[in-house]
Task: structure prediction
Amino acid sequence: MAVYKRGYRRYSGPLTGRWARFLVLPRYAWRRLYRQRLVLLLTIVSFVWPMLCAGFIYLTNHAELLQGLDREFREFIQVDGRFFSIFMYVQAGFAVFLAALAGPGLIAPDLANNALPLYFSRPLTRWSYALARLTVLVGMLSIVTWIPGLMLFWLQVGLAGGSWFTANWSLGAGMVAGFLVWLLILSLVAMASSAYVKWRVVAAAVSLAFFFILSGVAEMIDNVLRVRWGHIIDPAWAVNQVWRALLGVTPTEGPGATASALALAVIVLLLVVVIERKLRPVEIVS
Amino acid sequence: MMNVIPVVELEDLKVKLGRREILHGITCRLGVSGTGKAIGLLGPNGAGKSTLILTLLGFLRPSAGRARILGVDCAHSVGDARSRIGYMPENDSFIGDMTAVAFVRQMAELSGLPSEAALEKAHQVLFHVGLGEARYRELRTYSLGMKQMAKLAQAIVHGPELVVLDEPTNGLDPAARRRMLKLIVEMKNEQGMNVLVCSHLLRDIEQVCDEAVIMKDGAIVHHCDLEQERRSNRSFVELEVTGDDRRLRAALPEIGAEGVSEGFGRWRIVLPPGVDVNAIWTLVGRQQLLVRKLTHRRDTLEEIFLKAMGHLAQTPGEAGLEVGQS
Amino acid sequence: MSLPAVIFNEVSKFYGEVLGVNRVTLNIPPGITSLVGPNGSGKTTLMNLMTGLLHPDHGDILMRGISPRDPEALMRITGYATQYDTAPRWATGFTFITTGLLLFGYGRAEAEEKAWKALERLSLTDAAHRKVAAYSKGMRQRVRLAQAIAHDPALLVLDEPLNGLDPLVRAETIALFRTWANDGKHVIISSHVLQEVDLISDQVVLIANGMIIAEGTIRTVREEIQEHPSQYLVRCRDASGVASRLFSEDHVTEVRLNDDRLGLLVMTRDREQFARALSTIALDGHRIDGVVPADENVDALYEYLIGDE
Result:
């Protein structure tokens, strides 16, 4: 017979490396994300359009099914830059709502009860914390944007053959790059509103309002000052310009792709600064 | 030759907050790595205690000088320094919608514990601090005392060598305070951890700490070894008697001692070398007095603190030294 | 019955199902009275009942002759400081107190003078014109106290007033309470720091589970608990020798040896006889290095009466 005295003993085993530690936050956040039913639901709904597009691709590659249709119409139904740009447009819309739903739960709980000092008293820098949160959002949004997009692309390649690929590989690359830019902006906006607004519903509203308000202001500038460049401050419009350039579609009237890209870069920078200010482990009150 | 690494080492440390310099060039060595001791950090508000703690954690950078924890520089090797610390902040600090187990587990994993070990330790440490029954409940349902214990749990779950506790007994009711102090003593004695306790309650520090550092206006004004003060200092006696003690003062020189009355039968007596406590019993018996209390104590931490603040020119113990040099 | 008192008569207060306090009867004379009890025991409820912020479901209350159902009269003589950090952050310390005084009906000049005096008493004159938002925790605590005492109330009800204060300010504030109490005022404070309660209180009220467990001066409460023997810690060289001598005494009920064999914990039913016995033992040659009563303080009372919940 033996008596075991088992209480709390200091941990003395091996420690995990930097990457494993970095992944801790995303792992926990991921679990919390998909526990929310709305997020799950919206993600599932976001697959409807890609499936419709897949059907479309199938149709265009099986000409016999289109026998009865007009010749011009048949030319219209091509898998080209325009097709992908429409695909992106719709999915980007879903992404906005998904980011607004998922974003608030990201940073707000940590700030609500002053948990940041507990994080930063561990070997964790502010940047890794922010990056960890960012990767969760970007990851979640990727699932409904460029990942299905790439699948559509490969479906097309599979059905249309290598020649189509050599002619159109830039479409695939452009789509991925274009989506990533949009996801970055969405994620930063969601993080910023989560960092500054405690209540989930309000934070979600703020994330959405960001885009609508900027869009509205852009329209106002254009109409009041009778210019075209007002749209540069509307991130949705600007990113659309960039996509059109990447996908080889005719751009809309107004500032070109480079100007739009620059404007987006400025927005990203501003968001990063705004988020950084909130991620201090200690508030310095003079 | 044994290389002694102090737990906290400051070298002419200067720290600024904004434009104001808060810490004005502090130098000191506290504790010894490898031995489990508790260090008290005391001082009035505005003395720089929080600034010092924030500097040790790497939240603030020194404007001059260095700060080292267990031999590791706090500003240059922040990650390394932080991996050896556990921190319990003064203010409320938790994540409301996580259960205690999930919360402590996440913190443990962030400190480098593998996932399963983290879960195991989370359970262990939550039982240890007395939150066993409540550990599956969300932290926002916890009372103040429970939140303090949860804060302590996350500070020690990864078994750090140095634990920094900022006002650990704040707001705790007497039973919880006693439990907290007991846990601190256990941490240093049984787990071999070093504990830095920052508190306004001098009695808590006296009960728990082996060394104390007193700060004022951004500098260290006193560093005392409480263990030494505690070791029965035979020459200084605190006495409380019942009965008519008016003639006691005059009678003390009979045994070569000197003393001063504090009223209500309380006396502080200094014995000369060579005279021990039996003489007091004899004397008291002769005076037909009964002993209610008799202890050996030089100075209370409160007296040491007041002297460090400049409110006392000398502590009673120092005044007594002139009589019986020890 | 010449001294004004705080009187509770069979007072009960429930919040729906939740218990506040149950059949509380108290008679508190002027002086410093400490309310002691675990969190959730009803201390805050009691204080809210005293200041008329809550009305009891049963029973009546008289605060120095005034009923809390007459708030205008009661609030004139009462100063209340809660434990919550509720000072408005946009105001400066000075304006905060002055505004409060204006609400009492004092003219501006008088209000400012009284506010300044209160700030002086709490040593906040340097920071008086800075915004409360910039105050440290201890300063916010002090400004709330200053606001409570500004109108010279005869009755002070303070919930954990020393929380967060450094030792110097603590001592000054305690001296302030002492002055107040000596003037015949009521200073009712709640506190968790039992050693302090010991030193500063004239009376203690122990409360747990919504009921009053004990009330009175510390010594009388202790004396009333006769069935519990007194405890003493004895430091001595020959512990077993001393222990066997003590066992032969009638009044000694229990003797426990310390792990280090240099001390004893003795329980005795008669303090005086114990002191005599110890004296005899010492003079007989057993060396007694120290003797400390282990339980004539609120800490021990608390542990015995309320315990580790």
About this structure: Chain A is about 75% helix and 0% strand. Chain A has one domain: 19-278. The mean pLDDT of chain A is 84. The interface with chain C takes residues 285-286 of chain A (CB under 8 Å).
